Amino acid sequence: MTDSGKGDSKDRPLVSADDVRRIAGPVDDVTVAEILEIGPSFGELEAAAAYAMGDRDLDRPGLPLIGKVADLYEILTAEQELDEPGPR
Protein backbone atom coordinates (compact mmCIF):
# COMPACT_ATOMS: atom_id res chain seq x y z
CA MET A 1 0.00 0.00 0.00
CA THR A 2 1.31 3.46 -0.80
CA ASP A 3 1.51 6.34 1.62
CA SER A 4 -0.47 9.38 0.51
CA GLY A 5 1.70 11.69 2.64
CA LYS A 6 -1.30 13.21 4.36
CA GLY A 7 -0.33 12.22 7.89
CA ASP A 8 -2.15 9.99 10.22
CA SER A 9 -5.90 10.06 10.72
CA LYS A 10 -5.84 11.61 14.21
CA ASP A 11 -4.41 14.81 12.68
CA ARG A 12 -6.95 15.15 9.88
CA PRO A 13 -9.42 18.03 10.26
CA LEU A 14 -12.12 16.11 8.44
CA VAL A 15 -15.04 16.80 10.74
CA SER A 16 -18.43 16.66 9.01
CA ALA A 17 -21.59 18.61 9.85
CA ASP A 18 -23.02 15.43 11.38
CA ASP A 19 -19.89 15.08 13.53
CA VAL A 20 -20.27 18.67 14.71
CA ARG A 21 -23.87 18.09 15.78
CA ARG A 22 -23.01 14.77 17.43
CA ILE A 23 -20.14 16.27 19.42
CA ALA A 24 -21.44 19.81 20.09
CA GLY A 25 -25.15 19.08 20.36
CA PRO A 26 -27.96 20.89 18.59
CA VAL A 27 -26.36 23.87 16.86
CA ASP A 28 -27.72 25.92 13.98
CA ASP A 29 -26.44 25.73 10.40
CA VAL A 30 -24.47 28.99 10.69
CA THR A 31 -22.61 27.66 13.73
CA VAL A 32 -21.85 24.40 11.93
CA ALA A 33 -20.51 26.33 8.93
CA GLU A 34 -18.29 28.49 11.16
CA ILE A 35 -16.90 25.39 12.86
CA LEU A 36 -16.27 23.61 9.55
CA GLU A 37 -14.49 26.71 8.22
CA ILE A 38 -11.92 26.39 11.03
CA GLY A 39 -11.27 22.76 10.02
CA PRO A 40 -10.87 21.26 13.48
CA SER A 41 -9.72 17.78 14.34
CA PHE A 42 -12.09 15.58 16.32
CA GLY A 43 -9.98 16.13 19.43
CA GLU A 44 -10.07 19.91 19.09
CA LEU A 45 -13.84 19.93 18.62
CA GLU A 46 -14.37 17.52 21.51
CA ALA A 47 -12.21 19.66 23.80
CA ALA A 48 -13.98 22.90 22.83
CA ALA A 49 -17.40 21.30 23.30
CA ALA A 50 -16.37 19.99 26.72
CA TYR A 51 -15.25 23.48 27.75
CA ALA A 52 -18.46 25.02 26.37
CA MET A 53 -20.63 22.51 28.23
CA GLY A 54 -18.74 23.14 31.46
CA ASP A 55 -17.28 19.64 31.52
CA ARG A 56 -13.71 20.96 31.71
CA ASP A 57 -12.06 23.36 34.08
CA LEU A 58 -10.48 26.17 32.07
CA ASP A 59 -7.26 25.76 34.07
CA ARG A 60 -7.11 21.96 33.84
CA PRO A 61 -4.32 20.28 31.86
CA GLY A 62 -5.20 18.55 28.62
CA LEU A 63 -6.02 20.28 25.38
CA PRO A 64 -5.62 23.92 26.43
CA LEU A 65 -8.06 26.64 25.49
CA ILE A 66 -5.81 28.17 22.83
CA GLY A 67 -5.66 28.19 19.05
CA LYS A 68 -8.45 26.33 17.27
CA VAL A 69 -9.90 25.05 20.55
CA ALA A 70 -10.31 28.65 21.75
CA ASP A 71 -11.84 29.70 18.42
CA LEU A 72 -14.29 26.79 18.54
CA TYR A 73 -15.15 27.56 22.17
CA GLU A 74 -15.99 31.15 21.22
CA ILE A 75 -18.27 29.97 18.41
CA LEU A 76 -20.03 27.44 20.62
CA THR A 77 -20.52 29.82 23.54
CA ALA A 78 -21.62 32.76 21.37
CA GLU A 79 -24.84 30.87 20.60
CA GLN A 80 -25.35 30.16 24.31
CA GLU A 81 -24.83 33.83 25.20
CA LEU A 82 -27.55 34.84 22.74
CA ASP A 83 -29.96 32.39 24.37
CA GLU A 84 -29.36 33.71 27.90
CA PRO A 85 -31.62 36.51 29.14
CA GLY A 86 -29.87 39.79 29.84
CA PRO A 87 -29.99 41.81 33.05
CA ARG A 88 -33.29 43.41 33.94
What does this protein look like?
- The chain is mostly helical and 88 residues long.
- It has one domain.
- It contains 4 helices and no strands.
- It has helices at 17-24, 29-38, 42-52, 67-83.
- Helix 3 packs parallel to helix 4.
- The longest helix is centred in the last third of the chain and has 17 residues, at 67-83.
- The radius of gyration is 15 Å and the shape is globular.
- The termini are far apart.
Mean pLDDT: 79
Order of helices and strands: HHHH
Q: Tell me the Rg in angstroms.
A: 15 Å
Proportion in β-strands: under 5%
Number of strands: 0
- What general outline do the C-alpha atoms trace? globular
Distance linking N and C termini: 64 Å
Q: Sketch the major β-sheet.
A: none
Structural class: mainly alpha
Quick rundown:
The chain has helices spanning 17-24, 29-38, 42-52, 67-83. It is mainly alpha-helical and 88 residues long.
Record the SSE blueprint.
Layout: H1 17-24, H2 29-38, H3 42-52, H4 67-83
Helix pairs in contact: 1-3, 2-4, 3-4
